[in-house]
C-alpha cells in the first residue's frame, strides 16, 4: 500500500495564515479557469455543504425530480400499462446501457442497465466460466476486492465446480495460467482509490486464455476505461456513484461483442428471452445486450439514472475533461491537506502517481470515526472505511477547487481541536 | 382447462335494452353497498378509462408522486448519503417486507423486498435444493408456470445437478416423491386466473419430504394466501400488481422461520452479510429475512412500493374484504359478459368455482389482438396473452361494479361491430 506522510510544513496548520490565504486564492483561480465549472449548476447542491461522497452516492441532478414526477404521475399514473411501449419502459435497460457505453469506452449494443452490481457479478462470472476453454477450474479474484465481488465469486465457484484463487490485483497478470477460467478485478480499490492496470492485466489474462472481468464501480464516470480498446471480456459497474443515478440505481453489465453469442446467463429470466411475450415454455436467448437482462426492470430507479445521464450531454462534459479535473482536484486536495493538517495525524493511502490514482483520496487517521463525524458536523461530507480510513470522493462535475480547500482546512481544524 | 361457454341469452347483446339497464342498476346498487368504495379515492385514476390491468401494473396511489418528490429532492438531494441511516434506506428491504408479510399471512421478519421475481425464484430454488434431504435430485416445476419461473428453474437445476420435472399444478401433490427436492408452483395461473390448491399441495410436498416454493405474483394483495398457516417453505411474489408498487418495483422473498438459519443463498451479496460495513473478505450470513438480500436496494422503486402499501392502512381495507369484493366483481363481470357478448364469440377460461378463481377473468376470443386494441381505444384497458386470450384484472381497491358492467358492455359493442 502506498502510504505517503505529509511534509513538515503541515505544522503550520494551526495558524494557516499566509499559506491558507495562498491556497484559497489558488482555489479561486483554478475554479475560474475550470471549463467544467458551469456543470455544477446542473446539480441540486446545498451550498453550505462540501459533498465529497459522490463516490458512494452521486449528487442529485437538479432536473431529476421534475422528470420523475412525469414518470410517476403521467407515465405510470395516466398511461399505466401502455407506458411499457409508449414511454419506452420495456427497452430502457438497453437504451440506458447505450448511454453508459461511451462513458466506459464500450461499443454500442454491449451494455445493459439492470439489477444490482452483485447480481451482475454473478451473471458475468458464471457466464465467463462457461465461455472459458474446457477444463479450466480457477476463478482468480482480486484479493483486495470490494467484498461483494468476493462473496459472489465464492458462490459462482461453488456452483460451477471451480475454485477461488485470491490474488493481489498487481499480481494477477503474473498468476493467471492454463487453469484460469476467469479473473475478476476491481478497476479501482474502494479503500485506497488506487487505479489498477486494466490494459496490462487484461492483456495478460487473455494471453493466458482466460477471460478478464472488471468491476468498474469506482471508475465509470470518473476516468477513461476503454473497454473495447483494451479488449476487456466482461465488465460490471455502478450507476449511483460517479454517474449520479440515485440511491441503488441499477448497475450495468458489459459483454464484449465477441462473447455475445456465447453468453450463457445463469439468470435467464423472461426479459432476456428472444420473444418474451410469446411466453413460451422453452428458453431461447435474445441476441445482444438484452441477453444480460433477467426480470422486469425497476423502472423508477432506472429512469432516474437515465435522467441523471443527461448531464453528460452538456457541451463541456467529456471523460477526458473529467479525468483532467479529477487529477487536478485530488492533487490540490493533497497539497491543502499537507498544509492544513497537523503533522503526523493523517497519511494518504492514495497513490501520488496519476496513473495509479482514481478519483478519491483516502487518509489513514487514528481517530477516523470521530474525525469523520466532526467533519460532517462542520459541513464536510466524506465517509469512513473501518477501521481508520477517511474517504473523500471528488466528482469533477460538481466539486470545486474551493471545496477541496475548505475540506482540507476543516479537516485541519478538526484534527487540531 | 375450465372453459365455460356463455348461455344463449348473450344473443341479446346487440340490443341490450332491458338487460343492460338492469345490469347498470345492479352495478350502481353494488357500488353503493361496497365498503371498499371509498378506497378508490386513494388512487389517481383517469375517470374516462376502465383500468382492468392491475394484475399487470397496479394503478398509482395518489399520494405517491408527492412522497417520491420528498425521497428524491430531500432524502437524496439534501441529505445525500446520510439518508442510508437517517431516512431508513438501509433497512428498507426488510421494513417493507414486514408490511407485505401480513398481506400474505407471513410471520414478522420473514419477508424481504428486493430484486426481481426472477432473481428471487433463483435464490429460493437453489436454497431449497440445499435445504432438502441429501440425495434428492428433482425440481418439480409447474408445467403451466409463468415462463420466467421455468427458465430460472432450468438454470437452478443445471447449476445444482438436479433435473427439472414439469408437472401440471393439480398433479404436483400426486407426483412428488423421495427424489423430489423442491416443487415450485404458481399460486395462480397467469393466463386463466385459476387459483391452485396451496394448502393441499404444500401438505403433499412436505409429506414427501420436499420443500414447497410458491410464486404469489397473482395472489399477493388479491386473496388470502396463509403462508404460515399452510406451512409454506419459501415463496416469492410481485409488488407491482395487486400491491400497486409501481413499474418494476422489487419483488419479495419469504423464508419460513424454520428455514432461516439454513437458508444458503446462491447470491450472497454484501447486503446479506452479518456485518456488511466491516467489509470483511469472508462471508458470514446475517440472520433473518436480511439473508435474502443481495446488493444495494433500488431505493426509488422500493420506496414507491413502500408508499403504495399505505392504502392497506385504510380502515376499510383487509384481505378478506378484498377477496369478497374480488369474487363479487368477477362474478358480476362474467354475468355481464354473458348478457352483452354476442353468442359464441368469447368463452371464459377462468373457473366458475370461487375456490378455483383468483382476481382476473380471461376470455378466449378468435380475434383477441384486434378486440383488445379496440377495447383500449374505447377506454377499457385489459391485456392480451397470445394467441387468443383477453385478460381482465380486477383490483377491488379501485375497481367498481360499474367498471365491470361498462367493460362488458364495450366488449359486447366491439364484438358486435
UniProtKB/TrEMBL annotation, chains A, B:
Q: Does the keyword Hydrolase apply?
A: yes
Q: Cross-referenced Pfam families, in alphabetical order?
A: KYNU_C
Q: Which gene encodes it?
A: kynU
Source species: Streptomyces tremellae
Q: Which cofactor does it need?
A: pyridoxal 5'-phosphate
| Coiled-coil ranges from the UniProt annotation | none
Pathway per the UniProt entry: Cofactor biosynthesis; NAD(+) biosynthesis; quinolinate from L-kynurenine: step 2/3; Amino-acid degradation; L-kynurenine degradation; L-alanine and anthranilate from L-kynurenine: step 1/1
What does the similarity note say? Answer: Belongs to the kynureninase family.
Q: Which reaction does it catalyse?
A: L-kynurenine + H2O = anthranilate + L-alanine + H(+); 3-hydroxy-L-kynurenine + H2O = 3-hydroxyanthranilate + L-alanine + H(+)
Where in the sequence is the signal peptide annotated? Answer: none
What class does this enzyme belong to in the EC scheme? Answer: hydrolase
Modified residue annotations for N6-(pyridoxal phosphate)lysine: 241
| Annotated protein name in UniProt | Kynureninase
Q: What is its EC number?
A: 3.7.1.3
Keywords per UniProt = Hydrolase, Pyridine nucleotide biosynthesis, Pyridoxal phosphate
Q: Which HAMAP family would you find in this protein's record? A: Kynureninase (MF_01970)
Matches recorded under PANTHER family:
KYNURENINASE
At which positions is pyridoxal 5'-phosphate bound? 117-118, 146-149, 215, 218, 240, 270, 296
Protein function: Catalyzes the cleavage of L-kynurenine (L-Kyn) and L-3-hydroxykynurenine (L-3OHKyn) into anthranilic acid (AA) and 3-hydroxyanthranilic acid (3-OHAA), respectively.
Specify whether Hydrolase is a keyword of the entry.
yes
Source superkingdom: Bacteria
Gene3D superfamilies, per database record: Aspartate Aminotransferase, domain 1, Type I PLP-dependent aspartate aminotransferase-like (Major domain)
What is said about its interaction partners and assembly?
Homodimer.
